[in-house]
Amino acid sequence: MHIILLSGGSGKRLWPLSNDIRSKQFIKIFPGPEGEYESMVQRIYRQIRSVDPDATVTIATSRSQVSAIHNQLGDQVSVCVEPCRRDTFPAIALACAYLQEIKNVDADEAVAVCPVDPYVDTEYFEAIRDLTQQAEHGAAKLYLMGIEPTYPSEKYGYIMPETTQAVSRVSAFREKPGREEAQAYIRQGALWNGGVFVFRLGYLLEKSHALIDYADYADLYARYEELNKISFDYAVVEKEPDIQVMRFHGRWMDLGTWNTLTEVMGETSVGNVRMNDNCENVHVINELSVPILCMGLKNIVVAASPEGMLVSDKEQSSYIKPYVDDIHQQVMFAEKSWGSFTVLDVEDESLTIKVTLLPGHRLHYHSHAHRDETWTVVSGEGIAVVDDAEIVARAGTVLRLPAGCRHTVIARTGMTLIEVQMGKGISVEDKLKYSLEAKYGKHRS
Amino acid sequence: MHIILLSGGSGKRLWPLSNDIRSKQFIKIFPGPEGEYESMVQRIYRQIRSVDPDATVTIATSRSQVSAIHNQLGDQVSVCVEPCRRDTFPAIALACAYLQEIKNVDADEAVAVCPVDPYVDTEYFEAIRDLTQQAEHGAAKLYLMGIEPTYPSEKYGYIMPETTQAVSRVSAFREKPGREEAQAYIRQGALWNGGVFVFRLGYLLEKSHALIDYADYADLYARYEELNKISFDYAVVEKEPDIQVMRFHGRWMDLGTWNTLTEVMGETSVGNVRMNDNCENVHVINELSVPILCMGLKNIVVAASPEGMLVSDKEQSSYIKPYVDDIHQQVMFAEKSWGSFTVLDVEDESLTIKVTLLPGHRLHYHSHAHRDETWTVVSGEGIAVVDDAEIVARAGTVLRLPAGCRHTVIARTGMTLIEVQMGKGISVEDKLKYSLEAKYGKHRS
């Protein structure tokens, strides 16, 4: 089967573990099958592979997530990059053009579009596999997944099926209702709209060309910024008379807040955490190396990362957004395709950063106009390139990189560097990139 | 007046702001007269000066606190260093020998001994000034301060005065009683023993020579390790028939736990802290630069430093000690006479440290047998000395210091350095010190 995972959001509601460049789907807090912690995207990717080892998975996302995706899923996963945010219809149109032209998917084959962030079991992807089979062989144009409601939620859209059968034609859609309306819909057999859309690729290509004037994938990509922001529900679903919905009553959780996220954590703590016996219903996630000690807490979530620390009553944690919007600081850590970085220290005219490189990966070959840097290799081995000269880099190697000098490190093994940046107004914008491809092969940012 | 401040303790009860080398008296959380935060020792030192600008203050303490004392009180304060911990009688005997020989205090002059950590107002030191005048002119051998009890505490010793007058002879002492006993004592007019001892210097020198076989200060210092651990109460007070006690009913608080400490904090938070309106009776102290966000908390103390983070119900916070005893990590920050250091990153075979130097101060001239270091100056100016060669050091200067090389930095202005240490089994023990005094003057560690 072909799956398009929509991976969006900047995830302020799970601060300080999510930030402007790490969305919630990349936080590693779910116990994985081999004892390690998985992120949402890693969990879902593993679940899809376990249901269908031959599934092609394409992640539709923004440029800012590409590095984290490659870091967590490896270099083989397909990523369809949106040049900018334009809501779900343009994103799905672009991903479908990508599947047709880059992945050579046939117009008759079914494609399933799913959000990347529901917390589900594998039966969810078994249901999606069934839906793709129905889409390929059935008569309807569009197949949806309807989640059996567990309470009259005001934050989901509702699908009204014609019958109570497992698969039914859709009679109507209802957008986020009030509580009493929601209760009434549920009595009428309504289902939550889980954001899953399944169709034959040709169907969506037709819709795209009907609604957007473009020649091919490259053309669509080039004019992406001009497109209207419009949701797939609004542009396609609500206008399509021929839709079927399949009921799903397996586990389906929307883990958008600390309160809901901690419900599915396998353990009460992740990381260096100590709790006394008087703690009740407390969850602690510590991404720092120093310990967190909790004593006598009740119904509390504690989360710490290089960005900061949250200590919140679990219910209150869903109101976090305005407080986080008010925090203005630079990004303190990020996962990149080549490894990761963490800001260790911020001074007026210097930044100290720890950089880890994955084996076989490298930084961009780059220079800075307004800052000098000192890099000290503290572990691992590789080659540094400084103004086109190669230098063997291993623990103890110190590189002095004055402003203007071109530099990179190509890791042979995993490497760790301490980078001290010095200058006035240090900024991530101050970076000129150069090509090293001729000599060292393709680089993925 | 002459005051000996007894400064002891390693302060695990206020973890993570106190640690093995920073005792609670050095935590800066009390609003000072000029808007800055003061530590307990800074507050008490300022209060003494305001009551008697000519007071001589001598701090009796262990070697591990000397740097922090000079950092917080300046280089002029007298410090009498105990070579090792031997309880209060040896400490007071040593300090009195120090006053006699090093400070030339006359045997007829009165000396007041006070703990460094009660939270008091200036009237406390006015009372001590009165006591020193009584000790110089009065008939009794020893004068104590008796604190009017506010509840039947089980953790203090009680003094039984003969009368209810402001100053009275002492009839008896009672060690930490049970609650009912304490209530009975208080009904009989008992006072808490505040640990203040006032006497003429000659009195204590006599007692010291009677109980310890030593020639002079240097001899006492040299044989200090051989002395028995014995308290001043046990060795002197309980054996002295001629004692007077003065009642004190001003503010006197023992700030030994987070619960009591937060009661006297001027504000509910110190540092980069955000709280929503649903927090009640919450105190947060954040010594990190990244923010702490608290939502919907009640009766909670949060404290964060480079050592770790505590989140505790206020009452539970008094049971912290065994949990902190169980945390084994290196010291992550310290205040030194020359400035301070903070550990930024710990890896198997490297440590990254931020060092700040105060203007005019310098590190020891030293070398390491088993580690290489890279120092990058990120702000300020001074002179680096590397294997006896002088190098101008300013923002951008990088020093590569292989194992065995002698090195130091002498700060002209305030300076900040990032130090990357590399080697197997990095240890603070791996340090050889050399003298630079002939050329650069005396160094204070």
UniProtKB/TrEMBL annotation, chains A, B:
GO biological process: GDP-mannose biosynthetic process; polysaccharide metabolic process
Pfam families in UniProt: MannoseP_isomer, NTP_transferase
A GO term for molecular function: mannose-1-phosphate guanylyltransferase (GTP) activity
CDD domains the UniProt entry points to: cupin_PMI_typeII_C
Signal peptide: none
Superkingdom in the source lineage: Bacteria
Nucleotidyl transferase domain ranges (all copies): 4-265
Domain called Mannose-6-phosphate isomerase type II C-terminal: residue spans: 332-430
Gene3D superfamilies (UniProt xref): Jelly Rolls, Spore Coat Polysaccharide Biosynthesis Protein SpsA, Chain A
InterPro entries, per the entry: Man6P_isomerase-2_C, Mannose-6P_isomerase_type2, NTP_transferase_dom, Nucleotide-diphossugar_trans, RmlC-like_jellyroll, RmlC_Cupin_sf
Name the UniProt record assigns to this protein: Cupin domain-containing protein
Species: Candidatus Pullichristensenella stercorigallinarum
